Amino acid sequence: MAIYEYQCDGDGIVEATHPIGTAPASVTCPVCGREARRVYSAPMISSVPPALVGAIDRAEKTRDEPDVVTSLPPKPANQRTPVLPLTPTLRRLPRP
User: Fold this and answer.
1) What is the SS3 assignment for 59?
2) How many CA atoms lie within 13 A of 9 on its CB side?
3) pLDDT in tens, 40-90
4) What structural domains does the chain harbor?
């Protein structure tokens, strides 16, 4: 069974359960008795990790108009140059 959402003009969102793939296009509102049309919503968004949701949102935002980068990011102040062991083979290489 799946939960389907329907929009009633008078009472708002109405939920109804039906077997998967058998949901009708409209149901009768249990409060006012008027017809409620089926609406589509994102399923189970609360179970997705927030970092993934943020990444998807950023990707969607920049899909048509990507952010323009005008400069390189600054180097960290505490960045160290890696020291290589001076083996006979490496001694012949030029040093920066």
Assistant:
1) helix
2) 4
3) 887 766 677 888 888 988 888 888 877 788 888 888 777 766 666 667 777
4) 2-44 (2.20.28)
